[in-house]
């Protein structure tokens, strides 16, 4: 009886870890794609002043594409648009977890910190 209960508990724990890993992969992919699209739309503009002005619209489009995930405050961004050769956006996201917080911290699931750099191209 004790062996069966222990085995069932281990099985449930492994299932929770698998679900958390899948959710983490999906959320990471979603946030990275939205940030890359936003940075690419800002890098489209020719001058750095235009790029810095376009950040607000790109930020709004990114938050709109992330939906409730961004509205809940899980994602924060910081932009660098003054560089004449590239646009970069740093995305920090905290994914919700179904695991106990201590276990999610050990597995380093639930946190994303990425910097996306898009080169500005000019026609010659």
List key phrases describing it.
124 residues, alpha+beta, three-stranded antiparallel beta sheet, 57% helix, elongated
What would you note in describing this structure?
It is a single chain. The chain has 124 residues and is α+β, with helices and mostly antiparallel strands. The protein has 4 helices and 3 strands. It has helices at 2-43, 48-66, 68-71, 101-106, and strands at 75-80, 86-94, 111-119. A 3-stranded antiparallel β-sheet has the order 1-2-3. The longest helix is centred in the N-terminal third of the chain and has 42 residues, at 2-43. The protein starts with a helix and ends in a 5-residue tail after the last strand. The mean pLDDT is 85.
